[in-house]
Amino acid sequence: MKPVKDIAVKPDTSVSDLVKQFGSAGGFTATKLATAVDILKDMGDSYKFLSFPADIISTGTRGIIKDWVKERKFDCLITTCGTLDHDFARAYAKYYHGSFDMDDVELHKKKQLRLGNVLIPLENYGVAIEKHIQPMLQKMYDEGRRELSTPELVWELGKQMKDKDSIMYWSYKNRIPIFVPGITDGAVGNQIWMFAQDHKMKIDIFKDETMLSDIVFTHKKTGALIIGGGISKHHVIWWNQYKDGLDYAVYITTAAEWDGSLSGARTREAISWGKLKEKAKHITVEGDATVLLPIIAACI
Asked: Domains in the chain, ordered, with CATH?
């Protein structure tokens, strides 16, 4: 048996060194985090998916995702339309610190949107997105870009944004596809719908599915870091079932398992569906992604 060792933190202890100690400390979630880092390192030359919900892009965690795309740590991203919304809005306006305990009625009267403990002035969200995206869509249309997959849409927007803090910018620069299966469920998707009322422009989500099919059938091994749940999580594991499952998987979630939700489902449940291989290296880490992702980033 492996003995439990005490953690020793010194002034020169790095984050990476600390997480290595977690692996031998028997520290409940700490041990899981150390295992997650090991699995992510073991993914090696496998095709690596990253999926996540939009809310973390309203926070400084956006910088972690941006750096991973910039540094090509992952081969493709699958997320929700809100990721495009927050990435786009923050390229042109600011979000602010707030509190979970603020008076939401008063915030509504002052046109302040609350996302957890982040405050978003209304003009810095929907208004800012509409102001900047409509000319971009017009430029795309004038250049003959009339029918696009969601990765192609993101690349076109990223090309025009020229914001080096933007996830979409680096997606375009490095040609890393960002799939958004729920593209109409957000402000950017709504702006595209509005534009399409007067212009023959289409988002071809079936092209997305063909691209994902090509990915899973042309790569021998696949791995995934999956944050949260919903359509982003399911789209990764859904497509990987067709290649007999992911070879590596790390889930990060705050959801409970007992209600049968996808968000709360642990990695082991996906094995029964063939979405993870029986012999896959996998772990579920319970915790807040805004805390855990920067720690992981320091280690991989």
From this structure: 43-88+125-292 (3.40.910.10)
